[in-house]
Write a structure and sequence with these properties.
Largest sheet: 7 strands, parallel
Oligomer: single chain
Radius of gyration: 17 Å
Strand content: 5-15%
Bound molecules: nicotinamide-adenine-dinucleotide
Number of helices: 8
Helix content: 40-55%
Strand order of the largest sheet: 3-2-1-4-5-6-7
Order of helices and strands: EHEHEHEHEHEHHHE
Structural class: alpha/beta
Number of strands: 7
Length: about 240
């Protein structure tokens, strides 16, 4: 299937590693011009060479003032912006009792406001061309809460509300807005969370963890011309583990 992504202009947030990197690589494989971004310049340089990006821009999503400039710089470099994939480093684990106000505020900026701020900046550019694709990488935690991931459970559910609202508000501007909800997928994040892989695998009907490349293909489809009638959807990437309806 020709996804008609050749020369589409894309920015993927938090993409020097993990899921964001896999998405950027898949968009490039489909012919898009892609800018990657993360807070880590060394990793950006390595990834940029490895996957053949258009360019890269350092941006720390915990810094509210840096997000609009990121979108503006990316759109200038690409000559416009067709695709925005939002993503962020995962928040710290912890139960409700463990978390301080500061951790809530920090996670709110990095996980939630970075999405709001980046979409606010990208929307007029997409609206003017009457074509845009926004895909949020969130988590199954936003739909079915996961023990010890209080910040993720709470803020991702909010993102799904935002995604649904935006799909209604931006549809007439030719912009689709969707979210993909990964369950445990093989990236560095799993090492950070120090999870028991064997136990997790048992919870997933498919009997294995997800692969970043598989998630990337789903995101890439949602970014394509073919997916123009799909908007406001929270699509599970979960090997059958979530209740779907
Ligand atoms: P990862 O740790 O492999 O990669 C995270 C990327 O985000 C890296 O490029 C890192 O440099 C970048 N990053 C981290 N903090 C940043 C910041 N403040 N500003 C800009 N860039 C920053 O993680 P991943 O597995 O790819 O996960 C991506 C997102 O998906 C996370 O929010 C994670 O919680 C979520 N998620 C992951 C899984 C999984 O199993 N891997 C499952 C569900 C949800």
């Amino acid at each position: 299937m020709d996804l008609k992504l050749k020369n589409r202009r894309a920015l993927v947030l938090a993409s020097s590693d993990g899921l964001g990197k896999a998405v950027a690589a898949e968009l490039i494989a489909e012919g898009a011009n892609v800018i990657i971004s993360s807070r880590n310049i060394e990793k950006l340089e390595i990834t940029a060479t490895e996957i053949g990006v258009h360019s890269f821009i350092k941006c720390d999503l915990s810094d509210a003032s840096s997000i609009e400039p990121l979108i503006v710089e990316a759109a200038e470099a690409l000559g416009g912006l067709d695709i925005l994939v939002t993503n962020a480093g995962g928040p710290p684990a912890g139960t409700f009792a463990d978390l301080t106000d500061q951790q809530w505020y920090d996670a709110f900026q990095t996980l939630f406001m970075s999405v709001t701020q980046s979409i606010r900046a990208a929307r007029p550019i997409m609206a003017e061309q009457q074509w845009g694709r926004i895909v949020m990488i969130t988590s199954v935690a936003g739909k079915e809460s996961v023990h010890n991931l209080t910040l993720s459970n709470s803020l991702r559910a909010g993102l799904h509300g935002l995604m649904n609202t935006l799909s209604k508000e931006l549809g007439a501007e030719g912009i689709t807005v969707n979210a993909v909800l990964p369950t445990y997928t093989e990236t560095e994040r799993l090492k950070q969370l120090k999870v028991d892989r064997a136990a997790l695998t048992k919870q997933i009907p498919a009997g294995r963890l997800g692969q970043p490349e598989e998630l990337a293909k789903l995101v890439t489809y949602l970014c394509s011309d073919m997916a123009g009638f799909i908007s406001g959807q929270a699509v599970g990437f979960d090997g059958g583990s979530m209740q779907s309806v």
